[in-house]
Amino acid sequence: MELNPFEVAKKQIDIVAEEMGLDPNVREYLKRVERALIVTIPILMDDGSIQIFEGYRVQHSTVRGPGKGGIRYSPEVTLDEVKALAIWMTWKCSLLNLPLGGAKGGVCVDPRKLSNRELEHLTRRYTSEIINMIGPDIDIPAPDVNTNAQIMAWIMDTYSMNKGRSVPGVVTGKPIEIGGSVGREPATGMGLYYVLEAMCERLKLDLKPLSIVVQGFGNVGGTIADLLYKEGCKIMAVSDISGGIYYSEGLEIDKLLEWTKQGKYLKDYEDKKYKLITNDELLTLECDVLIPAALENQITQNNADKIKCKIVLEGANGPVTTIADKILLDKGIKVIPDILANGGGVCVSYFEYVQDIRAYFWELERINKELKKIILKAFEAVYTLSKERNISLRTAAYVIAVSRIAKAIELRGIFP
Q1: Quick count: other Cβ atoms within 10 Å of Cβ 165?
Q2: Neighbours of 111 (CB within 10 A)
Q3: Separation of alpha carbons 55 and 130, rounded Å
Q4: How far is the C-alpha of 162 from the C-alpha of 292, rounded, in Å?
Q5: How many beta carbons lie within 10 A of that of residue 373, not counting itself?
Q6: What distance in Å separates the CA atoms of residue 245 and residue 333, rounded to the nearest whole number?
Q7: What residue ranges do the domains of the chain occupy?
Q8: How far apart are CA 183 and CA 6, in angstroms?
């Protein structure tokens, strides 16, 4: 089935392999993950019962450096989803030319149904189960869907207690007080902003009057919506897990962020001007820029022909399926691929990792300057190759990313 994210990721490898004439042996190599761990996580709940959860950690490729990738907590997490996300992390790190590989983790759980104590115990037990797969020289986790700085702090502490010393470099996205980096939390949204700004310059579009629709109002969606709102853009619709709200004249994003930061859902926001809509309705609204910043497989062959925008800016990982990608391309919609668009998070995670290793921390001005330099360099390379070869931005991004991995494999050789 096309909506299996791992199958989507492998199909993307096939597409780029054909475009670049990739060695068939390397193609098959890249369609496999280096290692995948499935763990059982028994937790003593507050009511005295024991619940058992399943967790995963996958490393797709470490030929260019330690694995890097988030940990998500979601009832929808599957091993195939984590494999796909690990593959996309490989391409993202390679495209940005970071000395890191691709990895990902997840636990099949709805964290909203756990108390804080249960959540901490789940995190610490999961960390203990994957402890031999992670470390500053091996694989460095980070926050992802439904995980945050506090969860990273618990992971760091569990790892450190087992190692007998403080090891801040084991995770990124930590609180600043224990080795986190300034600028890490808004980094993915900031990267999206820089890339959209550059794309608008190339298409000779003025950013300010653009109408924007954002699916997902968490860290990524909330940050990019806020940045564009402050720029003067009209944010017509946003959504969270409860559904979306729409107002053709533009939402007051600052007030909505205050609301959701209290743990409240968008559907419960009281303003008679705003219309409640579903996530499906949100994706097909007419706008200039559509930003899917929730989960993978949101734009599919079932709704791609209804998408009415000039630009799709992928804030989430894998929000557009391969068949949908072709439909959007044929419609003349510019899709800025996830491995480029949302690379700001892993970029500043890399900065945090470097700061932890050196025990020397940077100012926010330097963080944002370095982020902008790296992500715009990647954008220019992708846009130029796309024009030169008359290929989509996604294919161009993959050609660059996969070429670097293939070269690393060629230089290192196959052990033994």
Answers
A1: 6
A2: 19
A3: 9
A4: 39
A5: 12
A6: 24
A7: 33-166, 187-341
A8: 31
Tokens of 32: 């496999």
Cα 382 to Cα 374: distance, rounded to the nearest angstrom: 13
Q: CA separation (Å) from 188 to 55, 88, 314, 340?
A: 25, 15, 11, 11
For the stretch 60-110, pLDDT in tens is 999 999 999 999 999 999 999 999 999 999 999 999 999 999 999 999 999
Q: Which two tokens stand for residue 58?
A: 């996958």
What predicted TM-score, i.e. pTM, was given to this entire model? 0.93
| Residue 104 is a catalytic residue | yes
For domain 187-341, give the CATH number.
Answer: 3.40.50.720
**Beta carbons within 8 Å of 132's beta carbon, 6+ residues apart:** none
**Cα 132 to Cα 124: distance, rounded to the nearest angstrom:** 14
| Domain 33-166: top CATH class | alpha beta
Has residue 391 got a pLDDT over 90?
A: yes
- Which residues, at least 6 apart from 355, have a Cβ–Cβ distance to it below 8 Å? 179, 181, 361, 362
244, two tokens: 């979306």
Catalytic residue among 10, 68, 92, 104: 104
